[in-house]
Design goal:
By secondary structure, the chain is of the alpha+beta class. It contains seven helices and nine strands; from the N terminus they run ααβββαββαββββααα. 40% of the residues lie in helices and 19% in strands. The chain has a five-stranded antiparallel beta sheet with strand order 1-2-3-5-4, sandwiched between helices. It is globular and about 50 Å long. The two termini are 26 Å apart.
Length: 250
């Protein structure tokens, strides 16, 4: 039995999910990711404020479910007794099977090129899925997306949401998915690596990542990339981060 008051508060949620929490795996600005066990094996539960459990929340889970049926690289949701998305104890939870693997090495050319080709294949899959309730991807935060073609996007395609496994690269966490332009998704992925490169004290690494990633994407997609639009998308993403940091966690 948990002794921490915040853990006791979540007992109704774990009961609803029929899971036993084991350990935290991290989280984002307004989320918490927990490894848990259940009758169907280890499960990753992503928790957020119950206020976010709207139609968009369920549409993102449905998007990952449909994508997983079409693309072996996608990790789809794990259905719980209450459905694909569960709310209890002031939280909303989406659950996914635990995948054993490691994040790709963004300084390693083969890993980066695999990221680019995997994203190109994912975009082809997502373009075939229509979800009217899916809003703009979270990272756009109300800004106009560069480009004139909108389709479903992963919304947070970067090394932390990818796992290198014995079966190849796997994509996890569609919690920020939504509609937008492909240029925005590419720019967002570049931004995520740029941020990590600066934190690691090796900003020059990002230049190599950018070339390897975009070239691999373009080759798999079979079309060129408008780098001006991608650069504008990166700028929009940087502005979005500033707005997020100005907001208190909920």
């Amino acid at each position: 039995m948990p002794t921490d008051p915040s853990e006791r508060r979540l007992e109704p949620l774990w009961s609803e999910l029929r899971l036993r929490p084991q350990r935290d795996l991290g989280g984002g600005h307004q989320s918490r990711v927990v490894l848990a066990t259940g009758p169907d094996g280890p499960v990753v539960a992503k928790l957020g404020p119950e206020a976010r459990a709207d139609t968009a929340f369920r549409s993102r889970i449905e998007l990952s479910r449909r994508a997983a049926a079409l693309d072996d690289a996608v990790t789809g949701p794990s259905e719980r007794p209450a459905g694909w998305g569960t709310t209890a104890a002031g939280c909303a939870a989406g659950c996914y099977p635990y995948v054993e693997g490691t994040s790709p090495d963004t300084s390693h050319r083969a890993d980066v090129e695999r990221m680019g080709t995997t994203l190109a294949s994912l975009h082809r899959t997502l373009a075939s899925i229509e979800l009217p309730a899916l809003p703009p991807t979270t990272a756009l935060a109300g800004a106009g997306p560069p480009g004139d073609h909108d389709q479903p996007l992963h919304g947070d395609f970067g090394a932390p949401n990818l796992l290198t496994t014995t079966d190849g690269l796997r994509i996890i966490d569609f919690g920020d998915a939504g509609t937008g332009s492909i240029a925005f998704e590419l720019g967002n992925s570049l931004y995520l690596d740029l941020f990590d490169s600066w934190v690691a004290g090796d900003p020059e690494r990002h230049g190599r990542f950018r070339t390897w990633f975009l070239d691999a994407y373009a080759e798999r997609a079979g079309r060129g990339i408008d780098t001006d639009l991608v650069n504008e998308a990166t700028r929009i993403r940087m502005e979005t981060l500033r707005r997020w940091l100005d907001q208190p966690a909920q």
